[in-house]
Specification:
This protein is mainly alpha-helical. It contains nine helices and two strands.
């Protein structure tokens, strides 16, 4: 891994930590709050690509496990990684990888609508489903109930998918994916 990639991975882990400083919105019927950190996950995958994007999220999770209070609401340590939020958090490296993989494949003809679709497919649908299933298993509720309850995240996550797509397309020229895919 190049030094530049390590710096990008660290910067995006820090960005996601900063997004965690914005207070979460608790929902009374589900033990997982609405946060802005999923916006950072989408940005990491789209801007950094599959490898560096997923590494940035792995680094973030390691920092959480070490006890840094960088999750939304100021939590950190092992408790969030074994509680109802575990599935959502552990899906983040996979989500960033998949978004990065798909983004790299369409990079030469990247359009905002394509990136919105990629973000929705992998973050909103895949990440949401993984998180909801694990949450249901941990809270000992039916999986179907967890999936239905997690639909509360969909409107906000779609807004985040649009924002992330616009930012990545606008910052495309300075993205490490630009260098990788186009050899710029």
């Amino acid at each position: 891994m190049k030094t530049k990639e390590m710096v990008y991975a660290a910067l995006f882990a820090a960005l996601i930590a900063v997004l965690g400083m914005i207070p979460p919105i608790p929902l009374g019927f589900i033990p997982v709050p609405i946060t802005l950190q999923t916006l950072g996950v989408m940005l990491a995958g789209g801007f950094l690509g599959k490898k560096t994007g997923s590494i940035s999220l792995i680094l973030f999770i390691v920092l959480v496990a070490l006890g840094l209070p960088i999750l939304a609401g100021g939590s950190g340590g092992l408790a969030p990684l074994v509680g109802p939020t575990a599935g959502y958090i552990f899906s983040w490296p996979l989500v960033a990888f998949c978004i990065g993989w798909a983004t790299e494949r369409v990079w030469p003809k990247l359009k905002t609508w394509k990136l919105i679709a990629i973000n929705i497919a992998f973050s909103v649908i895949m990440g949401g489903a993984i998180g909801a299933v694990v949450m249901a298993l941990i809270t000992n509720t039916p999986i179907w109930t967890g999936l239905i309850a997690s639909l509360a995240f969909v409107p906000g996550d779609i807004v985040k998918a649009v924002i992330a797509a616009i930012v990545v397309v606008q910052a495309r020229a300075v993205s490490p994916v630009e260098e990788k895919v186009l050899g710029a």
